[in-house]
Amino acid sequence: VIRGRAFKPGESFTYRTQWGIFRKAGFMTLSVEAPADETSETMLIKSSSDSKGFIKTIYPVSYDTTSILDSNTWRVLSNETKGETRGDSTHSKSTFDYEKMLMTHDDPSNPHRNGSKEIPYPVVLDYSASLLQVRGWDLKEGEKYPLMVGTKGKFYFTEMQVFATETIKTKFGKIEAFRIQPVNPVPQGKIFRDGGGMTLWVSTDERRILLRIDIATKYGTASMKLEEFTLSDESKQAKIVAPQSQPSS
């Protein structure tokens, strides 16, 4: 129940990426959809990422990911990514068989990642679902929460720790938020690593809105800041739509 309350059909979140002096380096959208078949006990988690402006001229990137989530166990059943980077297309898919505890990955662009691998954890999510999953936890300062992620034919385990409660500037005014970072990741990765590879800020109120995502790269920090969103509960949506102050940079 706790895992599942983060996933509500009809909800979506759009983020503007700021990278150094480039305020609109790109946009990312996360959304939850019900399946077309009303009898299906699944949900669709979708994400799209596109570079914009000057960044697009020097490093064009466009990706769309669709994951199928089991709405009983709240674990990913399949994950498919289609995209393009600097003119090079890619199309990869992972499927998860929990009866056999095997993940099968197919990536023609990176054949070294192809094949089957044992699923080491009972509940696995992809990157998009894991970002949404944080919203369903009973977040408390100082606490740690386990997260198991399967991506690109690999598995990662990490604990997400609430390090502090901070007031941050957002497009919707100043909002109190939990600052969350991964700790004790196995193995260490670009995103899941000790020392701040990724930082999340989630509002402390009952909505648990993911307000900002910072990812440290060798070229600097990419900050994804919430631009717009839709909640399934319109009464909660109305409380935050009206900006309380001027948008921050």
Description:
This protein has 249 residues and is mostly beta strands. It is 8% helix and 53% strand. It contains three helices and 14 strands. It has helices at residues 53-58, 127-133, 234-241; strands at residues 12-19, 22-33, 42-51, 61-70, 76-85, 88-97, 102-106, 115-118, 144-151, 154-170, 173-186, 198-203, 210-217, 220-230. It has a 14-stranded antiparallel β-sheet. Strand 12 and strand 13 form a beta hairpin. It is globular and about 45 Å long. The N and C termini lie far apart (37 Å).
SSE arrangement:
Elements: E1 12-19, E2 22-33, E3 42-51, H1 53-58, E4 61-70, E5 76-85, E6 88-97, E7 102-106, E8 115-118, H2 127-133, E9 144-151, E10 154-170, E11 173-186, E12 198-203, E13 210-217, E14 220-230, H3 234-241
Antiparallel strand pairs: 1-2, 1-14, 2-3, 3-4, 4-5, 5-6, 6-7, 7-8, 9-10, 10-11, 11-12, 12-13, 13-14
> Which residues sit in consecutive blocks of at least 5 with pLDDT less than 50?
238-249
Largest sheet: 14 strands, antiparallel
Kindly report the spatial arrangement of strands forming the biggest sheet: 8-7-6-5-4-3-2-1-14-13-12-11-10-9
| H/E series | EEEHEEEEEHEEEEEEH
Keywords:
249 residues; mainly beta; 14-stranded antiparallel beta sheet; 3 helices; globular; disordered C terminus
Offer a concise description of the structure.
This protein has 249 residues and is mainly beta. The chain has three helices and 14 strands. It is globular.
